[in-house]
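Proteins fold reproducibly. Take a sample protein:
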Amino acid sequence: MNKRKKDEYQCPLEVTMEIIGGKYKGVIIGHLIDKTLRYSELQKLISYATPKMLIQQLKDLEADGIIKRKLYPIVPPKTEYSLTSRGKSLIPAIVELNKWGMKYLKEENIPCAYKGDMKLHYSEN
């Protein structure tokens, strides 16, 4: 468990939000649903994140066991990220958060660049 965790929580949602509540963590998890991506691919998908912030969010998710990082010992280095089984267990929550956000944006008439191309293979039933 990541050393930044408290010894005790008042509510399970508190730890959940600590783990996935980073600025780009949910977006990273969403992009890794059903695929493995290289760092450069994630950087392109989340181009508004600074490299320093993206790297920190990836390190946090790895430390919490949500994603795994595979480093290939080649020059230049190749790094791939994918969801762990723990990370995959978050898919239903990420899907529902995405749906909620889409509904909110529509209700508030707020434009969004999201085109709905994220592959969310999750049954709504």
Residues 91-107 form the longest helix (17 residues).
